[in-house]
Amino acid sequence: MPSAKILNNHQYVYRDIWKLKGFGDKPKTLGQFIAINSGQFIDPSTWEDEIVPYGNCSIIITSSVVVTISKAFIGLNMRKCDIYGTLLLDSSSYSSVTFGYRSNVIVHASGFLQDHTSGNVINCAEGALLTIYLMGSFAGKDTVVNSISTAQTTANQTRSVKLSSDFNDPFTCGILSGGSIEKYDKVTYIVSQSGDFIDDLTCLGNVAPTTAICELVGGCGMSISAGFILSTVDLNSELNMNFNDISIAVGAVLQLGAPDSNNIFKFKFQILINSHGTLSDIADGTGGISICL
């Protein structure tokens, strides 16, 4: 029986609060969970600090480790999930698996994402992003990725895409605000709000492009969706990262240069700019654009 104490004619009951091992504790690095043993996602022994990931978190699955998710619904806001080992969506008793919150999943070289759901369906919330780097792998049986946005579907909007059964080539799939899905056969940064080129908040997944990543994957892409303005003010008049294509949608704007500069804007690498929107040179003076080959 729990102990009790009488204060001011009120009875207060003290109860022992039992907490399951591995749930609700804090990892050594706040918000970061590292899988070091193969096992179920919800098994504390899978994780470095024997704490199951929860809340707003980042996850790292280390090389040779296989983490298995056997649930139909994943209620985590994964700011980033770096897969160097294997993430197995093994909800075989369910027709689909649903990521209920935005998730940024990156499959690195030697990493592996497998879909074993019975219906081969992955449902994702707005803001979700899947990126597969060179030599990263995906396996599924004609897996379909669906947007679960509640926003009204607009004309020509894609809400569902089918993935190849097995591949290990660079790939990006993202869900924008409003529920539309964009898919690319390369590592592509998808602008999700107006901002600067290398600002973490500008692109889907809150991940800014870097020279190292674009070199690693053999060249990146950039997609600017309708309604957004991408500024290059923070590039100091030169894009020295290996971007080999930039797409500007109808109603989108790419601004080259800076208002307080008269320097020519330079592209260090050969690039294809596919513009259905606006390409603007905002530099003072003569300005101009140069591609260095």
Structure description:
- With 293 residues, this protein is mainly β.
- It has 2 domains: 21-185, no CATH class; 188-293, no CATH class.
- It contains 1 helix and 31 strands.
- The strands form 7 sheets. A 7-stranded mixed sheet has the order 3-5-8-11-14-19-20, with no helix packed on it. A 6-stranded mixed sheet has the order 4-6-9-12-15-18, with no helix packed on it. A 5-stranded mixed sheet has the order 7-10-13-16-17, with no helix packed on it.
- β19 (171-175) and β20 form a beta hairpin.
- Mean pLDDT is 86; it is low at 1-20.
Short description:
The chain has 1 helix and 31 strands.
Backbone CA Rg: 23 Å
Poorly predicted regions are: 1-20
Q: Give the overall silhouette.
A: globular
The tally of strands reads 31
In the sheet with the most strands, the strands line up as: 3-5-8-11-14-19-20
Roughly how much helix do the residues carry, as a percent range?
Answer: under 10%
Question: SS-based structural class?
Answer: mainly beta
Distance N to C terminus: 80 Å
Please indicate the percent range of residues in DSSP E strands (runs of 2 or more): 35-45%
Number of domains: 2
Give the integer mean of the pLDDT values.
86
> So how many helices?
1
Q: What kind of sheet is the major sheet?
A: 7 strands, mixed
